[in-house]
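Students often ask why we bother encoding 3D structure as a string. The short answer is that it lets us treat folding as translation between two languages. Here is a chain of 274 residues written in the first language.
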Amino acid sequence: MNDKAFDLLSRLLLVLILLVSIFPFYWMLANSVKSDMDIFADPLGLPAEAQFANYLVAWAQADLGSAFINSAIATGTAVTLIVVTGALAAYPLARMRFRGRTFFLILFTAGLIVAHEVVLIPLFNLFNTLGLLNSLWSVILTNSAFGLPLTIFLFWQFFRDVPLELEEAARIDGCGSLDFLWRILLPLSKPVIGSVIIFQGLFTWNEYLFALTFLRERGGKTLPVQLQVFFSDYSTNWALLFAALVMATLPVIVLYLSMQRSFVKGLTAGAVKG
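And here it is in the second language, the structure alphabet:
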């Protein structure tokens, strides 16, 4: 009976967590097809008459097409740089023996504690000097740098537990270090790569502070910054804002659903030694 009670309690708790998790999306979706008057009258209820035209108006008014393209370019490029650079940095730390490798590992992972606000002004001055302000490269390079510490740690954790015999066999077959990394380690690291893509893709897609500071030209902003057009000094167009938020959230949901099998495996990769 104790086991049954525990099982029932666990299921109820999971259902509660599920409801709490999906409620914000329901609230956003329901209000995206209402008028502002209906939102204020009943913010939690279903719309009396769905106004799907909100999506078309929001898309045109905020020029979301350009913003989507900018966010997709910034996110795709940054995630690619993070995966490639993180794997190249983690390989020698995990597979090679040299003086100071523990220090370098600690130095890389220490980046996890660096606050974005601390480096905002120095980065602004640096990009201004390099002529990269109002360029997507300013956001791409910054997000790549902040994504590397966690990525290096995840790859390092996985690479160190790959059997040494596998590398020795590859060496006998003529594989160099880069060949072994490219042909053997990276294909084995698909769960880690999937987790990195989800984590860093979500972070870069939703990143606001750096994009707001570095991208100021019309037509060159990413999606989170472009959503500001629905705010004014005296009012906010909530219906159009909710519609735009739904459209901005969908790519992230699709990304997670397409790579969810790799997500948990990547988080636990290297946690248990064989």
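Translate back mentally: The domain at 53-268 is CATH 1.10.3720.10 (MetI-like fold). Keep this in mind for the problem set.
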